[in-house]
Design a protein that fits this description.
Order of helices and strands: HHHHHHEHEHEHEHEHEHEEH
Distance between the termini: 35 Å
Strand order of the largest sheet: 3-2-4-1-5-6-7-8
Number of helices: 13
Number of domains: 2
CATH class of the largest domain: Alpha Beta
Radius of gyration: 21 Å
Shape: elongated
Low-confidence stretches: 1-15
CATH topology of the largest domain: Rossmann fold
Helix content: 40-55%
Length: 321
C-alpha cells in the first residue's frame, strides 16, 4: 500500500532533489552559465564587443531569438542608464532576466486535482518519454492518495499499452485499454465512464505519439478533447505536452503546433539530464507563455520534479535559490 509523504519527509527530501537537479543540469550549465562566465571573467569594461559575445552565447545555448533579445535589451538599457557598469552586475542582470522569463510558470503551478474526475491528456511525438511520464504521473498521484485511472489511448503501439499495464500494477492504478487499432476517442469515452463508476479522482490519458506535421493525427486530438468535454464539463483539465530537451529549438516548433491543435496547458520537459540544450525552456516559455509543470532529470519516479523557476535557475548557477 502506498502512503503520501508527511510534510517533514518532504522537507527532508528537498536537498536531495535540488542536488539531483543541479547534477542533471550540469551539461546545460556548461553550455550556458560557464560560457557566460568565460566572457565576463577578467573584463574590466562592459563594451559593445563583450555584449556581442554574450548575445552569441545565449543564442548558442538554445534560448532562442526572443528570449535572447529580451535579456540583451534589458542589459543595454541598464548600461545606458549607467545602472550596469561591472561584469558582476551583468551576471546578476542575466540571472534576474532568466528567472523573470520563467516566472509565469510560478503563477501557473500544477493544478490541484478536482474532487471528481479530473482528465489530464498527455500528448507529444514518439520518443519523448511520453508513456513513461504518464506512468510516473500516475504513481505520483497514487502516492498522494488519489485514485487514478490510466487510459491507454495510444492504440497503435502495443508496447505502450504493455508499459502502462506495468505502471498501473506498480502504482495500484486502474487501467482501461482496448484492441490494437481501435478509435482512441472511443477508448477515452469508455475510460471516463469507468472512472465515474469506480469513483476515480483523475484520468490520465496516454495519446498516440504523432508527428506534429500530420494534420489528420492532430485532428484526432481535437476530437478527443471534444469527447472529454461532452463527458465532463471543462475536460480535459490539463493537456500536457511532453518535450524532449535534447531536441533543442525543434521542441519550440512542436510546441507551436500542439498548442494550436491540442490546446496545450502545460509542458513536461524530459531528458534534461542527457543534454546541454536545457536552455530551450527559456525560449519556449518566453515565446509561447506555456508554463512548465514538471521536468524529467532521470529515469526513476523521484526524478520527475515539479518545476520551480527559482530552483531551476539557481541550479544552473550552482547555488541554492
Amino acid at each position: 500500500m502506498l502512503f503520501s509523504r508527511t510534510g517533514k519527509e518532504k522537507e527532508e527530501k528537498k536537498p536531495g532533489l535540488f542536488e539531483r537537479m543541479r547534477k542533471a543540469l550540469s551539461a546545460t550549465k556548461e553550455n550556458l552559465v560557464n560560457r557566460i562566465e568565460s566572457v565576463l571573467t577578467g573584463r574590466a569594461e562592459i563594451d559593445d564587443a563583450l555584449l556581442e559575445e554574450l548575445e552569441g552565447v545565449l543564442l548558442g545555448a538554445d534560448l532562442g531569438v526572443k528570449a535572447t533579445s529580451q535579456i540583451m535589451t534589458f542589459i543595454k538599457d541598464q548600461r545606458k542608464k549607467q545602472l550596469i557598469r561591472t561584469a558582476e552586475e551583468v551576471r546578476a542582470a542575466i540571472r534576474t532576466q532568466l528567472t523573470a522569463i520563467l516566472q509565469p510558470t510560478a503563477a501557473a503551478a500544477p493544478q490541484a486535482v478536482p474532487p471528481r474526475q479530473a482528465v489530464w491528456m498527455v500528448v507529444g511525438v514518439n520518443g519523448t518519454g511520453k508513456t513513461t511520464t504518464v506512468g510516473k504521473l500516475a504513481a505520483r498521484f497514487a502516492q498522494e492518495g488519489k485514485r487514478v485511472l490510466i487510459c491507454a489511448a495510444d492504440t497503435f503501439r502495443p508496447a505502450a499499452i504493455e508499459q502502462l499495464a506495468i505502471w498501473a500494477e506498480r502504482s495500484g492504478s486502474e487501467l482501461v485499454k482496448t484492441r490494437i487499432g481501435a478509435d482512441p476517442s472511443a477508448v477515452l469515452h469508455d475510460a471516463i465512464a469507468a472512472a465515474e463508476a469506480r469513483k476515480c479522482d483523475i484520468v490520465i490519458v496516454d495519446t498516440a505519439g504523432r508527428l506534429h506535421t500530420r494534420g489528420n493525427l492532430m485532428a484526432e486530438l481535437e476530437k478527443m478533447r471534444r469527447v472529454a468535454g461532452r463527458k465532463i464539463p471543462g475536460a480535459p483539465h490539463e493537456v500536457l505536452l511532453i518535450l524532449d530537451a535534447t531536441t533543442g529549438q525543434n521542441g519550440l516548433a512542436q510546441a507551436r503546433e500542439f498548442l494550436k491543435a491540442a490546446g496545450v496547458t502545460g509542458l513536461i520537459v524530459t531528458k534534461l539530464d542527457g543534454t546541454a540544450k536545457g536552455g530551450v525552456l527559456f525560449g519556449i516559455t518566453q515565446e509561447l507563455k506555456i508554463p512548465v509543470r514538471y521536468i524529467g532529470v532521470g529515469e526513476s519516479l523521484e526524478d520527475l520534479l515539479e518545476f520551480n523557476p527559482e530552483n531551476f535557475v539557481a541550479s544552473l548557477f550552482g547555488d541554492q535559490p
